[in-house]
Amino acid sequence: MMDVNGSNEPIGDPAGGVGTRRFALPSGTKLQEYTLVGVIVALIVVGAILKPDTFPTTANFRAILTQSSVVGVLAIGMTLVIATAGIDLSVGSVVAAAGIAGGLVYETGAAVFVLAALGFGLLLGGVNAAAIAYGKVVPFVATLAMLAIGRGLALQMSDKKPISLLGADGIRWFGTGKVLGQPVSVVIFVVVTIAGWLTLNRTAFGRHVVSVGGNREAARIAGVPVRRTIFTVYCLSGLLAGVATVLLCGRLASASPVSGQLLELDAIGATVIGGTSLAGGRATITGTFMGVIVFGLIFNLLTQLNLATEWQQIVKGVIILAAVLVQRPERI
């Protein structure tokens, strides 16, 4: 039987039965991760040469991680979604809608804001999940529809006006506070990354995610709960969009109905350059984490070099295109 990575080696039960071989990631994934390490080192060296006074500093690296944390959290959820051969184009709009949902009740306390943001993100992610897993709507179409719905909800609930959170110190703590001397947002990003890695690589659910993306029919025959797995990954994507909302609103001290624009493209880009296949069946949380860092380093350096925003967008597009081109032809 052919496994999800295209190997003809015998494989075990995807459900993770005793005495079976786990789904293994192809060596190409590890190679791409090693390549990303080299890219990160090269970017740091180049930055140190071009901007020796401002780029290679602890404060700047901390700022890069802080600024990357929102996209990073979204990218972890996107990795799980893309691993099932899906896509989530709605996360940017979900961030905006969840922020407004929290902003409407923020005066009752930071905890209520967080619960409202997480709950609204999970709700919209659940709508995506139900439409895709049980309504059998193509992921691109379902999440494209939610992109419009989420943005519309954000504009309607806020009356097209941002909600200031300047007086909400409890909420702003998520954007400006520190834990053990490190920014809260960075700590949360790292925790989410570790949780995502453990989920994908050390649980039966993670093996189900990869098997569903590799060969859905084979996974179904092997006993994998395909619909439930797909439903869960989109719910997780929505929930993590809620987490990203809390970090973004805390940093900006505002909940805006126009926030989160193009965040979905940043998350997809970081996931793809990290080595996760758009065709599904291959995913790497470590690669996604490094993809986020690569994006953060590049745009921090370009900003310090005063490169125009439009050129930064062109560079972003070129990077994503190059990442897809270097993926193995049989997986795209």
Question: How are the SSEs ordered, and which strands pair?
Answer:
Layout: H1 27-50, H2 58-83, H3 91-103, H4 110-133, H5 139-158, E1 163-164, H6 169-176, E2 178-179, E3 182-183, H7 184-202, H8 204-214, H9 216-221, H10 226-252, E4 254-255, H11 263-273, H12 285-304, H13 309-325
Antiparallel strand pairs: 1-4, 2-3
Helix pairs in contact: 1-12, 2-7, 2-8, 2-10, 2-11, 2-12, 3-4, 3-5, 3-10, 4-5, 4-10, 6-10, 7-8, 8-10, 11-12, 11-13
Descriptors for this entry?
mainly alpha; about 0% strand; disordered N terminus; two-stranded antiparallel ribbon; about 325 residues; ABC transporter involved in vitamin B12 uptake, BtuC; 13 helices
Descriptive report:
The protein is an all-alpha fold. It has a single domain (59-331), classed as ABC transporter involved in vitamin B12 uptake, BtuC (Orthogonal Bundle), CATH 1.10.3470. The chain is 68% helix and 2% strand. The strands form two sheets. The chain has a two-stranded antiparallel sheet with strand order 1-4. A two-stranded antiparallel ribbon has the order 2-3. A hairpin with a 2-residue loop joins strand 2 (178-179) and strand 3 (182-183). Helix 1 (27-50) packs parallel to helix 12 (285-304), helix 2 packs antiparallel against helix 10 (226-252) and helix 3 runs antiparallel to helix 4. The radius of gyration is 20 Å and the shape is globular.
